[in-house]
Amino acid sequence: MIIATKQSLSVLLIEDNPGDRRLAEIALQEGSLEARLSCEVSSVGTLADARALLSGSLSPFDAILLDLGLPDTTGLNGLTSLGRACPDIPIIVLTGNSDLAAGTEALKQGAADYLDKADLLPRPLLRTIQYAIERKQHEVELLRLAQTDPLTGLLNRRTMLTRMSDAIASSRDSQTGCAICLFDIDHFKEINDVYGHRIGDNLLKQIASALSAELGSDYTLARLGGDEFAVVATELESAESVPKIASRVIAVIESISVDGDARVAASASVGGASDFTGDISTEELLAQADLAMYKAKVSRRGSFSLFDDAMNAEAQQANEMLRNMPSDIEDDRFFLEFQPILDAQTHEIVAVEGLARWRDRSGQMISPADFIPIAEKFDILPRLAAKLLDDACSLIRAWSDAGVPVVPVSLNISPVQCRDPLFGLLVLAALTKHQVRPHLLKVEITESTIMNNLDQTRANLELLRSRGVGVHIDDFGTGYSSLSLLRDLPFDTLKIDRSFICNLEQDADAGAIVEAIIAMAKRLGFHIIAEGVETESQMELLTKLGVDALQGFYFSKSVSSQRLAELLLEQQASQSPRKLATRSA
Ligand code: GH3
Ligand code: MG
Q1: Based on the domain organization, do 368 and 436 belong to the same domain?
Q2: 478 falls in which pLDDT band (50, 70, 90)?
Q3: pLDDT tens, 276-285?
Q4: Would 1 be classed as within a structural domain?
Q5: Same domain membership, residue 170 and residue 107
Q6: How many angstroms is it from 196 CA to the middle of ligand 2?
Q7: From ligand 1's centre to the CA of 227, what distance in Å?
Q8: What are the percentages of helix, strand and coil residues in the chain, rounded to 5?
Q9: Is residue 98 scored above 80 in pLDDT?
Q10: Whether 205 and 256 share a structural domain
């Protein structure tokens, strides 16, 4: 901490007694001469004049000498009100008649020191003022460190929470509204990974300074941690201001660029919440904005979402799911259904994809699109995935024991599992536990999961492949995998993303992309599955283009384990290849 030693002093003397005032002025002049300092003294006789001078003063005072017996204030009130108005200036109280008790009380109320008026000697007076200034500078610096984030210099989370609670109270008093916009940089991990942490840090600093310049002192700007920031606004006339603040934030962040090896651009997703009742807690308002930000992230990176009551209902539903999930995993309310994958030429079931299902305690089916993100966000997914892996292996064992001609079962693997260094071993342990041959189990990993977790994923996948467990790359075409990368990674099967398949007939580009993917995959020796096949013409076109296998509602929706066993037995019994009886398009 560097504290500057002052070469010149500017002191505000508040003393109504002309004699005492003169004595103090003389002591100050003499003391500063002795200390070889220039000292400018401004003297006033009332608290009101002092306030006027302080509010109009361009160069603030270094210290205040305050008489406790002023005509327009009583006792220590003058001290406390001045302390609030100028918290960065040390106030030294002047007491009369060796009044030790008044001096001690003044210290408790925030005075930097006290001196007896009757005993104002030049050198001790100057020394007291200088020490008080130094202590105040230390105090201010320590406070700044405690309140701010060291990287960006913005307010930190704790201070922002205090400001929010002040904002709610002041809006209640003024019968206006207050709001918070939370924002989080999109794909910041990738920026760190690709360009390095130094560039990531620079980006955070630039965001902080560009937004401070844009928003000025009308708003409170804070860095809550990581790549998450907040803007707090008070005394709003209507909630319409909130999207406007959000657009300014989004525009500023999108205009920033940091030079690395290439230009690094950023975007942010913003969630806003406002209150015009004054009857809300800081935590509640923050939770609402957080929910809205989560919505913005999910709907589209770089967008804004404003909290509304529907989100509250959704949040309650999510909370309920979160509460029930662990015990429902234990109680087998989560289970697998299986969607057949058919050979493109013979239309025989050659594999199945295991899909997670949840029937809650009221008997209602809950969509994986709702529960998977929650399980993932709140770290329940590893437990759920382990249970489903165990179920899949146990079913394969049971089918085999019952003489069902079992086909390979593929399971979807989440980014969280891929990052777990033990994931590969856990899969092998489940296979051993149920005595299942490795080729009957396959793992499906999306292209974006692989791209975002390349190093952690590689070791797990290589272990699985070396033991004979098949590895599928799922949703292919939506990420940015390069050909050379694909060749280096241990995949055997590539699943073309359904978004291309559903547009196959209408969109010439989708057709061209599918054709290119198939040509490339064949050159690299991959087995190719097209998922999301819903119509006969899609099926015919994909077969003509050379895909190996097909999956989709045109053939079958997901079926129970029991129904799958029946289908496999029927298929075995049947002499001629035929379309599935479950066809349900
Ligand atoms: P999303 O689009 O969902 O926000 O994804 P994201 O990649 O931005 O991930 P997320 O917001 O969940 O994580 C933020 C990352 O920011 C995590 C951490 O690696 C990184 N990070 C946290 N603090 C710092 C920091 O001080 N400097 C740098 N360079 N990176 C940080
Ligand atoms: Mg982020």
Answers
A1: yes
A2: low
A3: 998 898 988 9
A4: no
A5: no
A6: 15
A7: 5
A8: 50, 20, 30
A9: no
A10: yes
Antiparallel, parallel or unpaired: β 228-236 and 177-185: antiparallel
CATH of the domain at 120: 3.40.50.2300
Cβ-based neighbours of 329, under 8 Å, separated by 6 or more:
380, 383, 384, 387
How much distance in Å is there from the Cα of 60 to the middle of ligand 1?
41
**Looking at residues 454-482, what average pLDDT do you find?**
83
Last residue of a domain, one of 289, 307, 325: 307
CATH code of the domain in which 193 resides = 3.30.70.270
Q: 105 in ligand 1 pocket by Cβ < 6 Å?
A: no
Note down the domain range covering 471: 316-572
| Integer Cα distance of 123 and 23 in angstroms | 14
Answer positive or negative: Cα dihedral of 132, 136, 142, 146.
Answer: positive
User: Against a cut of 0.85, is the pTM above it?
Assistant: no
Q: Note whether 483 and 534 are same-domain residues.
A: yes
Ligand 1 pocket test: pick from 156, 190, 204, 227 the residue with the most ligand atoms within 8 Å of its Cβ. 227
Residues 308-318 have a mean pLDDT of: 85
Quick one: average pLDDT of 102-116?
90
Long-range contacts of 239-243 (CB under 8 A, 24+ apart): 239/177, 239/179, 239/274, 239/276, 239/306, 241/179, 242/179, 242/181, 242/272, 242/273, 242/274, 242/306, 243/272, 243/304, 243/306
Residue 328 lies in a domain: yes
Cα 479 to ligand 2 centroid, rounded to whole Å = 18
Q: Which atom of ligand 1 is nearest to the CA of 301?
A: 2
Q: What's the domain count of the chain?
A: 3
Residue where the block lists tokens 């509304």? 308
pLDDT digit string, tens, across residues 417-449: 888 889 999 999 999 999 999 999 999 998 878
- Give the end of a domain, one of 277, 307, 337: 307
Residue 338, pLDDT > 90, answer yes
Regarding the beta carbon of 151 and ligand 1, being less than 6 Å apart is answered: yes
- Cβ of 186 below 6 Å from ligand 1: yes
